[in-house]
Write a structure and sequence with these properties.
Radius of gyration: 15 Å
Number of strands: 8
Order of helices and strands: EEEEEEEE
Oligomer: single chain
Strand order of the largest sheet: 1-2-3-4-5-6-7-8
Distance between the termini: 34 Å
Number of helices: 0
Protein name: RHS repeat protein
Largest sheet: 8 strands, antiparallel
Shape: flat
Helix content: under 10%
Length: 95
Amino acid sequence: TRGFDLWNRLTNVQSVVATGVVSRLDWTYDAMGRRVRAGWADGSYWVYRYDPYGQLESGRRYWADGRPVAGQQFEYRHDAIGNRTVGGWGGDELG
């Protein structure tokens, strides 16, 4: 099933069988309509950050207890006209 907010943005998707929920993903948006968080059924979640121009700058995954997940992060940098110039991903739990 899928859920939507008042602006018709996708807010959750879940798969359900007779024994219960198999998977679920929830999204949270900021006031600008950008996706800032994605939460999984196991309690882990991604946090997304944007630069002042609204371009995706980074994403980092955390366990339900708030600890970073090793290898589950990325960062982007952009030049003055918005071209992506640097991209990095992976790493340990510290980045």
